[in-house]
Structures are given as C-alpha cells and as structure tokens.
Amino acid sequence: MGVVKSKRMPRAVREQQMLDAAVEIFGQRGYMAASMDEIAELAGVSKPLVYLYLNSKEDLFTACIRREAAALTEAVRTGVRTELPVDRQLWDGLLAFFTHTSLHPHAWSVLHLQARIHGEAFVAEVNAMREEIVAFVTQLIVVAAREAHRDPDLPEREVAGLAEALVGAAESLAAWANATPGVTARQSAATLMNFAWAGLGNLMEGRPWIPEAVGAESAPVQVSG
Amino acid sequence: MGVVKSKRMPRAVREQQMLDAAVEIFGQRGYMAASMDEIAELAGVSKPLVYLYLNSKEDLFTACIRREAAALTEAVRTGVRTELPVDRQLWDGLLAFFTHTSLHPHAWSVLHLQARIHGEAFVAEVNAMREEIVAFVTQLIVVAAREAHRDPDLPEREVAGLAEALVGAAESLAAWANATPGVTARQSAATLMNFAWAGLGNLMEGRPWIPEAVGAESAPVQVSG
Amino acid sequence: MGVVKSKRMPRAVREQQMLDAAVEIFGQRGYMAASMDEIAELAGVSKPLVYLYLNSKEDLFTACIRREAAALTEAVRTGVRTELPVDRQLWDGLLAFFTHTSLHPHAWSVLHLQARIHGEAFVAEVNAMREEIVAFVTQLIVVAAREAHRDPDLPEREVAGLAEALVGAAESLAAWANATPGVTARQSAATLMNFAWAGLGNLMEGRPWIPEAVGAESAPVQVSG
Amino acid sequence: MGVVKSKRMPRAVREQQMLDAAVEIFGQRGYMAASMDEIAELAGVSKPLVYLYLNSKEDLFTACIRREAAALTEAVRTGVRTELPVDRQLWDGLLAFFTHTSLHPHAWSVLHLQARIHGEAFVAEVNAMREEIVAFVTQLIVVAAREAHRDPDLPEREVAGLAEALVGAAESLAAWANATPGVTARQSAATLMNFAWAGLGNLMEGRPWIPEAVGAESAPVQVSG
DNA sequence: CATGAATGAGAGTTCATTCAT
DNA sequence: CATGAATGAACTCTCATTCAT
C-alpha cells in the first residue's frame, strides 16, 4: 500500500537517512541552493528534527563531507594490498577510486565540487581526506623511485607536485566520467594509469603500461590497436 | 589622499570596473553567496547601475565567465607558436596557462570552480573555452603520434580521455599552486610537463623531459639532482 | 485592554485574518500600491507567514476576489425567492446587492475597481461572478417579456445590452453610494428600481414602480411628493 | 527612410506628444505599472525632458486626465443643441459620448478605470468632469419634469441618484462596448436611451423610445420586432 | 519525541527622480 | 535645450531557524 512511514526509529538510523537525503540534495543543488525544507522532506522527517539531530545547515554539510570522505578513503584503502608491487597498488587504488565515485556520483559532487567553494571550514574537511590519498600516492612514488635504484630523496616539493597532479587528474577524470555516458570505471583507471606510468612520450613510442592479469573480462584501454 | 571616487565615467569603463569587482567577489564567495550589494560596493557604484548595465546576476556572471575565458584562451594562444616542435608547444602552452592563472587567481576560481556548478548555461560558457584548449592538446597528441611513426588514428575516446586527464591535471595543479605559497608558474609547468611527457615510469628511470634553452634565468624543476 | 495579539492560531483562522486584511488594503490602495508588508502588519502576522499560506501577491489577490465574489453572489442568491413575481425578485436582488456592498465597501472596491484593471486572470475571476448576476437579470427580463404577452424571442444582443446597462448602473450606484455619506442601501435600490422598471419617461408622468408591502418602516424613495 | 526624429520642436507640441504617449501607456498598463521610461520612449524624447515639462509622474497623470476630460466634455457639449427637445438632447448627448469613448479607448480607460483608484487628487480631477455631465443630465431631468407639468422641485438627492445611475450605466456600457467587438456607438446609445426613457416596464409593453429622423442609414436598435 | 506555527534578516530587482555635461 | 550617468528607496519573495504544544 505504498511507502509505510515508519515511526520511532533509533536515532542512529534516522541520522543516516537524513545524511542520505542531504548528500543527494547537496550534490544536486549545491550547498547554498539546497534548502533544509527539501532535505527534511526527502528524509521523511520534520524540519525541527533535523535541527535537533544535526544542529545547523553547516553542521549537516560537514557531517555529509565527513561521512562521504571516510567512505571513499575506506574504499580505496580496502582495494589496495600493500604487499603487491607498486604499479599494481596504483592500479588497484585507481580502480577502487573510480568505481566508488561512479557508484556515488552525488557524494563525489559534494566532495569534489561543493565542498571546495564554501568556506574554509568545509575545505579543511575535504583536505583531510585528500591528504590521506595524496600521502598514499606520494609514498608510492617514493617507493617506486627507490626500487628503480635511484636516489630516494627526491625533492619534496617535486614529489608533492607530481602527486597533486596525479590526484587532480584523477578527480577531474572522475567528474568527467560521471558526466559522460558510457565511460566505465575500468576505462578511466586504465587511461590514467597509462598516462601516469608511461607518460605521453612512451605512449607515443608504443610502450604503454599494461595491467597484467587484472581480470580478463575487459582488457584495459590501450593506445595501440 | 586615498582613493578618489571618480564619478560620471563612460559606460564602457564602468562596465569593466563592475566586471573586475564581480570576478573578485564571485571568485571569493561563490556565485550564490556573492551578493549584488557587495559587488556594487566594491565597484564603487550603486546597485541599480549594475542592473542597468548588466541586467541581472546571471547575466553578470555570464559576462564574467566570457571575459575571463576569452582572456585565458588568448593568453595561451599568444604563448604558443605552431611552427615549433610539439613538445615545445606543449611547454609554452603550459607555461602561459599557469602564468595567467597565477596572475588572476579569482578569475581562475570563477572558471574552474564556480562556473561548473551553477546551471547548464554557465557550464556551456566554460566548456566553449575548455574545448578550445582540449582541442589544442588533442591535436598535439595526434601530431606527436604521427611524428613517432605510429598509426595516427588513435582511438578517439582514448585521446579524449588523455586530453581530459591532462587538462584536468593542469587545472587542479593551477588551483593547488594558487593555494600553495611559493609555487611558481614555471615550477607547475615543469612538473606537469615531466609528468605528461615522460610519465612516472620514465621519471623513475632518470629520463625526465627537459626544456632545452628555455631561458637560463631559472632552470626547470628536475627530478634528478 | 485593547487588541490582544493572539499567537499560534490554527491555519484556517489565520488565513481568514490575512484575507480580511488584504481586502481592506487592496480596497484602499489598489493592487499595485498595496504592499505585502502593510497587509501582513494589519493581519498581525509576519510577512513570511503570508507567503507560506497564500503563496504570492497574485494568489493572495485572487483568493480575495474569489472569497468576496462568492460572498456577494451568495448574498444576492439568498435574498431572492424565485416563486415571487419578477419585479419583486428584481427588487429583492437589488436590495440584497446594495446592502452587501454597503456593508463591505472595501470588498466592493476590490471587485468593482481593482480586479478589473490588473491582468486577464483577475478579470476572469470577477467575470465569473458578474456573469452569474447578469444571467439572473437576463432571465428576469425574458420572463417579464413573456408575461407581458410579448414575443419571448427578444434579440439576444439587445437583452445583453439591457442587462449590462442595468448591472453597470447598479455597480456604479453602489460605488457612488459608498462614497456618498447618508445614502442607504434601500434608497439606492429604490432609485435604480424606479429607473429600471418605469424609465425616466414614466417617472416623469408620475407612474413610478412601487414596492408593495416591502415593509412599512421606510417607504421607497419616490419622485412625486 | 523611416521615421525622422524631428528636433527642436516648440514646447507646446512636444508636450502634446508626451501626453499622447502617456495616455496610451497609462490606459494600457494602469498608473502604477506604467513606467516613465516607456512613456518617454514612446514619446520619442529623453526622460529628463518629460520631467522638465511635466514635473512628475503624478502631474503627468493629472495633465492626462485634465486634457482627456476636457476633450470628452467638449465632444458631448458640441453634440447637443439646447434648443431641441430634451429627449433629443439626451439622445444626442449619449451618441456623442459613446462615439468619443469608442474613438479614444485608452483615454476612456484612463478616465473611467485608472483615475478612480489612485488617490483623492486624481478622483477629484475626474469628478470635475463627471459633475459637468451629471449636471447636464440633471438639468435635462428637471426640464423634462417641468414639461410634464409636474412639480419641478424634485428631491435633489433623488435626481442626483437618477443621474448617477444613468451616467454609471453609460460608463459601464461604454467599457463593455469597447471590450465587445461589433457593438457600435449608435447601438449603445439606442440601448441606453430605450432603457432610460421608457424603462423596462414600458419596453415590455412595446413602447420603446424611438429616435425620430435621426439619420436613416442605420435604424436604432429596438426591442420590438 | 515530534511537529505545526511563526519570524528576522536579507536576497534580487525595479523605478521615479536628479545631476553634470 | 537635451541627455547619458547615477541613485535612494521600496518592492516581492526566500530561508535558516526557533518556539509552544
């Protein structure tokens, strides 16, 4: 007989429903254009209850960012096994990243677009997540350099820039993939992996990086035919 | 004795002042949080005059995007000479890009962050610019492939992904550089050029791309010592 | 000790208070000159509450028209008994009409003056009421013609013009009576009844229409002494 | 080569052009919705010039009312010859009235609708005109009564009411005729003349007032066949 | 616990009106 | 004379937020 409006749910559950609704609305409309009315309605509760549990619009937005940032980093962390070679680690991380962002486009919109343009407080929340990922990538680069028998003490700023560029490329690619029908997470990961590992120069010379044995069901996108 | 509030200026001049103020406020606060009052005050005029000349908040924002997008593409176009080799073209383009974005951080914020999240109309304006740059990069990739004696018919979707990743990386890097004190445009360009041209793999093996004879006043950032 | 500002009233009651205030302000100032601020203040509530319940200035105005039009037609309908002779029906209708308009001058101003000059939407609302009254009068004329043994098929356009003239005279007379101190509803009704039923010609010849036994407390206004 | 924008016209001419434009705009939009910008543009002059000549929006509106009221009363006055019988005088007056209002619908809208709802000042202007017409009608009634050998001292209030009703009927009929395609001034005049002179009662008995020899090209509308 | 009732503050927008040239 | 430049004031409407029940 339609949706049953369940009453008297435990607080923790209600809070999650509110956050679900908030992420969807914030992701679609943006922070400022989102209205508490709409969020409360989508969550199926009254507005004062939202305030009772989450305090204010800012706090609600912060809670969204925190929850979604944790979920994304957890997804990437789970996808990577540190006992594997570094290139495999990078591949697994990218795949986990693009998979998660494509499964939760509103959440990604909140983290990537909305949070960065509304006040230092929100940016700080996102940066906590971002730094964890950048740190992971930075460490990969350092380890890779060491394995290549090269001086492990790469200039810090240089490594930071490289990691930043890689993460930034991934973020932009994720937004583009979400907005472009037909682009799979695996394709995005392959494109960026090729780009990052081999560089345009090597790609031109026919030496793309190839994910070996990463599941046969769909070969990574390659430059050469 | 301080700022002289000049009155009765010709329309064209006043319009530019308004756009200057609008870009700064939009860049700082974001489209929705920016108020027409604040913009008018910063421009040194009354609010009705802003409406008389620019019609509405949306039109004002659109005018900002158009002006700044044109300025950025013009800067890049001017910086590149097509008779030079492709790697040099990419380098010059990157340098012009990072130089311009670092000189006009608010404008870059408007184009990169604000414009992308407020309605299809604004996105379309930015995309016109973005596509010009992506087209430039795409053509560089195709030419590079041809010069490397490889099949010039790279898969379209693949090239689009690569260009997107490169432009996305550049955009993120620009935002990061603006937010990180002490990072010069030249350093950003060098980091991305290395990343793009050699790839992480090659970088690890000590084969960075090096901008030859690009002015001695400041050596390009290198990975190796 | 004066007006008690009751708070927390049920929605239906508040809405009527708002409509009361709106009719008064619209009637005094006119649609455009009336401000929502003033209406809200007179209603004893804040402006947002007016918008919450009535949506917009247009909707508020439409609601006023609808309520007052319904009240007026109801008053006329209740005052007339169709089993009586047609002249008596006309008299009763006129008396009910002038009584109602004199008791609710602002409402009459809204219906007669304000609503007719602000957009087709409002005019349509008023016309629905007007047509009901014009139809009533038209039918009276047709029945009267039939009873006078005359061809019942009066030219339609002619009857329409007569009904329009009669209703128009009544409307103008109502406005004039409201603006002229000392004119009672009964006097207005008598004047128009004489005019309509006997015509100036008959009046001149000393043959006014006389409401028989319509209560002795106040004889109808007569032309002759 | 299109409209030539003549410059340096004498003040009196310019003023008339402004009034022409103002009457049209006020008639279409209403007093409040009309903008000085639009009026100035339609008049083909700059806004400050309008203020230089006509002072303010209120003064401009008052000037419109005065001019159009004078034009209307002049038209009626010219149409009537006092040496003719009173019924003929009424007929001629009605015909002149309906002819003028149908030729200048915007002016009539200004006088009939707009002026009555925007402040005492405007109403006073219109009433000056209205009273002249009412006085004319009143005098007709008095003369008619005297000719019918009846007591010439009709109760003043009664005569005023009759005149008001007649003028009100005429006004409503004029508005209705302007809004109803196919209704000529002559038809409106005939309808009202029948109504006024004979009354519904007499009309029912087949005794309409008939304008004798008032031009054969179009017989007056009659109730009987 | 949960909610209908209510609001202070501020947004974008428009307009009659006036200087300075 | 005539006008482009400029504004103070007011408007409709929205929203995050809080009581009282």
TrEMBL record, chains A, B, C, D:
Keyword list, A-Z: DNA-binding, Transcription, Transcription regulation
DNA-binding region ranges: 35-54
InterPro entries registered for this protein in UniProt: DesT_TetR_C (IPR054129), Homeodomain-like_sf (IPR009057), HTH-type_TetR-like_transc_reg (IPR050109), HTH_TetR (IPR001647)
Domain of life assignment: Bacteria
MF GO annotations: DNA-binding transcription factor activity; transcription cis-regulatory region binding
PROSITE patterns according to UniProt: HTH_TETR_2
A Gene Ontology BP annotation from the UniProt entry: negative regulation of DNA-templated transcription
Signal peptide: none
Residue stretches making up the HTH tetR-type domain: 12-72
PANTHER family: HTH-TYPE TRANSCRIPTIONAL REGULATOR RUTR, POSSIBLE TRANSCRIPTIONAL REGULATORY PROTEIN (PROBABLY TETR-FAMILY)
Record protein name field: HTH-type transcriptional regulator RutR
Gene: rutR_2
